[in-house]
Each structure stands twice: as structure tokens, then as C-alpha cells.
Specification:
The chain is mainly alpha-helical and 302 residues long. It has twelve helices and no strands. The longest helix has 39 residues. It is globular and about 70 Å long. It has a domain of 174 residues: MetI-like fold, CATH 1.10.3720.
């Protein structure tokens, strides 16, 4: 019986084509690095120009922010307070609801229910943020004014709650993926030792998936810190150093939008404030990402 000769393999990549593909992939990776470097360079140049006119002490030790007024103050803390206030409210909404949704989808829902509910939940992430902003202004705020005395028309509560709803899919989806990736052998081992379902979830599955959960929380909070349109529409534009969520406040992103509308001449000190604020915002998100990576690495090593 004759053995058929092996067919030559066609379509194999030649060394030249492999080098071309490798060069293209390197160019794609380098593009993102150069883009990041360009953003940092622009922020750094304009921020240095800002601090050449405004001392660092006025920026960090003043409690008022009025660079667009005749009596100019450049204290960044009112904008930081407004940003942290809305972000904190959003985290109080998104973290528990997102984690509970992730636990249900991973540990309790059937395969059919999971395949149906997860895409429906992720639809929330596709709603434009300007729609969320007007929803907070025309629906959530009037509803809250009926139950919260002294709540102003622009406040921190309404955009904080809506931002929390917006980032729930980010927490739930990424956390559910982390929980779903936990090996079934860990669950079966806990059941074999006599543990029930809830203790197994909270004492075995959650710690095993903590690196992914921590990453989802950091990404969601970073997303809330950088949110623009919701706070620009519903939080007001009154920078004040306060922890009262019922009054109008202004966040760092909302101030950047306010100055970037085109009324402020380029090259002026008022214009350069947006780069100083942008650098502060960049530093916040950078610290959050570094913290999230270290936290994830710590839980992964355990």
C-alpha cells in the first residue's frame, strides 16, 4: 500500500513577512507610549508655566478657588473636595450593588439567566454620560428634594448616585469574571470540609478572586474621578471646600469644561489653570492605578 506524500503547507509566513508583522505590532505599541508621553509633556509644560506665575503655596495652601474672578485665588482643595465627594457617593452605590450582582451572576444564577442578565446589566455602560447628567438634573434631584430637606437644585448627591449607577456594570462585570474564573476545586474542597454555600462564597471564593475584584474597584473609582458631563450638568459650578453633599459644588473635570468653552484667551493664567488642574487629576488617577496594581499583586501572591 502506497503512502501518499505529505502535502506541502501553503500560506506559511516567510521571515520577511514575520518581521513586517512584528514591526507593525511594535509600532502599535509605541504609538500608545508616544501618545502618553505627548500628553504628559503638554501637561508638564503648561503646568510649569502656571507655577511660574502662581506659587505652589498658593495652589496647595489656599482654601478658595476663584481664578476667573477679579479677586483671584488658586487653592485647588475646593475642586478636590468636590471630586472626592461625588466619587465617594458613587463608590457607596457601585461597590455593594456591583459586588452583589457579581456574586449572584457567578454563584447563584443559572447559565441561561447569566447569559441574559449580564448583557442587560452592561447596557448601562453604553448610555451616554450626558444622558445620565440630564437624568440626574431633571429626575433624580427633584425626587431627592422631596425627601432631603435643604437640597439645592445643584448638589453632590444626585450626580454621585447617578455616577454610581453608571459604574455598576464595570464593577459587576469584571468582578463576575474574576469570580467565575475561580477553580471549582476550591468550592468542592470547601463543601467536602462541611462548609455551606454562603461561607464558601465569602471565605473561599471571594478571597481567591480578590485580585480581579480589587482591579475592578480601582478602575471603577478612577472612572468616577474622571467623569465629566454628569457633574458638569448636575453638580453646579460653585467650588467650595465642604463635605455637605446637599449644596452645589464643582469638580476638577467640571472646571476644565467650564474654562474650555472658549471664553478664556489662550496663554493667560486663567487658561493655564486647566492644565494645573488636569495635572492634579492625572496624578490622582495614576496613584489609583499604581495602588490597584500593588493591591492586585499582593492578593495574587497570597
Amino acid at each position: 500500500m502506497e503512502v501518499e506524500s505529505a502535502r506541502p503547507i501553503t500560506g506559511r509566513a516567510t521571515p520577511r513577512s514575520e518581521r513586517a508583522i512584528g514591526a507593525f505590532m511594535f509600532a502599535c505599541a509605541a504609538l500608545s507610549i508616544f501618545t502618553t508621553a505627548g500628553i504628559i509633556a503638554v501637561l508638564a509644560i503648561e503646568t510649569v508655566a502656571f507655577f511660574s506665575e502662581v506659587g505652589i503655596g498658593r495652589f496647595f495652601f489656599d482654601s478658595e478657588w476663584t481664578p476667573l474672578f477679579a479677586d483671584k485665588h488658586f487653592g485647588i482643595w475646593p475642586l478636590i473636595a468636590g471630586t472626592l465627594l461625588t466619587t465617594g457617593i458613587a463608590a457607596l452605590v457601585a461597590v455593594p450593588f456591583g459586588l452583589l450582582a457579581a456574586i449572584y451572576l457567578s454563584e447563584f444564577a443559572s447559565h441561561r439567566a447569566r447569559a441574559t442578565l449580564k448583557p442587560m446589566l452592561e447596557v448601562l455602560a453604553g448610555v451616554p454620560t450626558i444622558v445620565y447628567g440630564y437624568f440626574a438634573l431633571v429626575f433624580v434631584t427633584p425626587a431627592l428634594q422631596a425627601v432631603i430637606p435643604g437640597l439645592a437644585g445643584f448638589n453632590a448627591v444626585s450626580p454621585g448616585l447617578v455616577m454610581g449607577i453608571m459604574i455598576i456594570p464595570m464593577v459587576s462585570s469584571l468582578s463576575e469574571d474574576a469570580l467565575h474564573a475561580v477553580s471549582d476545586s476550591l468550592r468542592e474542597g470547601a463543601y467536602a470540609l462541611g462548609a455551606r454555600r454562603l461561607p464558601t462564597i465569602f471565605r473561599v471564593v471571594l478571597p481567591a478572586a480578590m485580585s480581579g475584584i480589587a482591579a475592578s474597584l480601582v478602575l471603577a473609582i478612577s472612572r468616577a474621578i474622571g467623569e465629566t458631563m454628569i457633574v458638569a450638568i448636575a453638580a453646579g459650578q460653585q467650588p467650595r471646600l465642604t463635605l455637605d453633599p446637599r449644596v452645589p459644588i464643582e469638580t476638577m473635570t467640571a472646571y476644565i469644561v467650564q474654562v474650555s468653552m472658549g471664553d478664556t484667551p489662550a496663554g493667560t493664567i486663567e487658561y493655564r489653570t486647566i492644565f494645573a488642574v488636569g495635572s492634579t487629576l492625572f496624578l490622582f488617577t495614576f496613584v489609583m492605578n499604581v495602588f490597584g496594581q500593588r493591591l492586585a499583586r499582593r492578593y495574587r501572591s497570597h
